[in-house]
Amino acid sequence: MRKSGLIWCLAALWALVPMPAAAAAATTEPAARPAADDLEEVKQALVALRRDLVILEEELLFPASSQVAVFLSMDVGEFFQLDAVTVELNGRQVSHHLYTERQVDALMRGGVQKLYLGNVKEGSHRLTAFFTGRGPHDRDYRRAATVEFEKTFEPAFIELAIRDSESKYQPEFTAAVSP
Amino acid sequence: MKQFLCELLFSCLLAAPAARGIDELSYGTALYAYHQQDYAQGLLEVLVAERQQRLGDDPVRFELAKGSFAFQEGMYRYAADTFAAVDPAELTDLDRMRLAFHLAREHHRRGDWPAMEQQLAVIDLGANWRGRSRHHPEVSFLRAEGALARGDFAAAEASLAELDGADDELAYGLFNLGVAQRASGDLAAAEDAFRRLGALRVRTPAAWDLVQRGRLALAVLSRERGEVVTAEALLASLPGEGRYRDLALASYGRLAMARDDHALAGRIWLTLIQRGTWSASHAEAHLGLPASLERMDAEAQALDRYRRAEAVFAGRLEALDVAAGRARDPQWVRALLAVAAPAQPADGAAPADADPLSLDAGLGLDTWLEWLASESVHGLLTEWRELDGMATWLHTLPDHLGALEQVAAERHRRSAAAREMLAAEALTERRDAIRAQTVRLAADLAAIGQSAAHRDPDWMRRLATPEELPLIDRLDAMAAAVSAAAASAAGAAERARLQGRIDRLQGLVFWQVADEQAARVRALRKRLADAEALLAEADARIERLAEAEGRFAAGVVADFRALNGRATAVSRQVAAARAGRERALAEALERGVEQDRERTRQYLLATRVAIARTTDRLAAAAAPASAGDS
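ok -> structure tokens follow
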């Protein structure tokens, strides 16, 4: 009586306990979602709205006649681990960015960061970028790259680039105006 | 991973000696967002570049990126339409593989395995410089999935063998392989797959979760085979804290009972009970502890524990009854969801019940969160959160648009003022006059440049320096005076002498001018060219000023009206979709509550049966003693 009662109790208990997660069948199909289409429609409408808003903002706040945009790209990055970039435009600091590991990784994978978007008058300007990080032999490394450019009615795009110089075993930093 | 993105998904931006064009930079910014898994931003970057016509000579890569980002954002139809719109004639071999990859992912999502494998067959990454085949983790994973769907475990194994131990895809692949092999009855193979999964050194939380599931599955298999010690060792390898903590402890308890080590089992059940958080394992512990006590012949304590368990289950049943009532109240459901919302509710005012602590008063926040995390609810909750984020953004949009409209109005006012200034100061007319003058000057200069030098004051004046000009004028006047004196016939010799001196001086100036004629013409031409450039710049500026107002009137103002209208329409769509999710979530919660009630009723029933049995037994044990006493 005692033994059978206990076994019955445990059997009932085990029956109530859900199966371990590992025993559940693997599925790649997402659970059926009610009215999933409406979400997609909303997303499409929203992304189109955001696109037009971004363009409108750019036209209003950064018109082509005064717009200057600074981009940062990185290739390889074996000789330099980027920590931060500071951008000075005509001697005035306009941007400073500290990089997370994920952002550096995104740059190394071919991503380009829009570092600064601003306005300048037509005429000659000087842009200097200061790169801070760890250089060869894990030493603190700080270098600058400068470019002088002529602002016209067209928007000015400047690319800051960090590249590895295989011949010098050193990183190279460049700043150039995009054609 | 870099290889994946460079070679298959997108083209890699390699080192270039000079700055790249804006199309390259635009594509790079989209990649920058993509690599940070910010797919919405990546999609936005691509759409902006598309609208600004910054696609360069290779628009196909933008199309593929657009489809890929849309896919990642869950916009499957949009992604499929984008891929379908790509002209096959414009695709390079690499593009063709990229497209096949994207389509394979879409077929995988739909579970259309033959179509997926057809697309995967297009992908061939070739070999590296050492002659070894190159693989892409996600492609290998998809191939393994296709093989599993066909039941070809060997092919699945071969595809998974291409993956690196650090790839998350390997954890998913091994888990699915193990589950499929177990379902097919090949327990040894399943055990091998779970063992490999359990030994992986992974980096992401999702993969680590799978590793724990793998170890747990392995323990279950070992227990099924009666290998208690192995199962215990596997459970011991699970972390003390984490998602599977209670499940592992419960398994441990069962194993201890199976080995008749009821003292250990009792301690394990007690530990689970003292943790306090409600779960199936917790409920199991409430029943397992008195069961262990029974086996240790501690009947009285067992009965006491059964009664405590009865009180716990009855209390929970009451709380579930209350919860079932609450789950039918949309306001309360919204308050519950607000706990999981990324920000404050879109409509600003948080419901009074939104405080998570107030939720804890009933069933416990963990219980609610557990229901919210269940697979049936998780998808809905994710969508609700997304919609809530959209609603929050849309809620602030009118203010943002208002500020932009003010900027536009100010620019519009300045443009109008500039145009008025152009009219008031007759700048256009004056510019036209200067232009005419420049044109005349250019014609004169051309004539001088082509004419031979001749000793004529007018000719000399055109090329004279500022210092020479007064000298030429003075000599010209003196020559005129001498000629006038000749008419009065006074002092012919003196006149001749003066005439000679004037001629000599004029000759000196002439020869100076004639000698430098070519250089002076070149200098004048350069000055004329500079003046023309300045004039052209002034022309462009005047044109822009003149046109600015018109552009604003036709473009920006109209855009604001349209944007406001669209924002309102999208807000309505979002509100409707969010309300739909809230209804569905409420229903799902009700179902969750009902399932939990049913389980708790069964626990209660089992407890009461055990109480009756233990009471009987205690009474039976007491009866002979009483009979003996009497």
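The radius of gyration of chain B is 45 Å.
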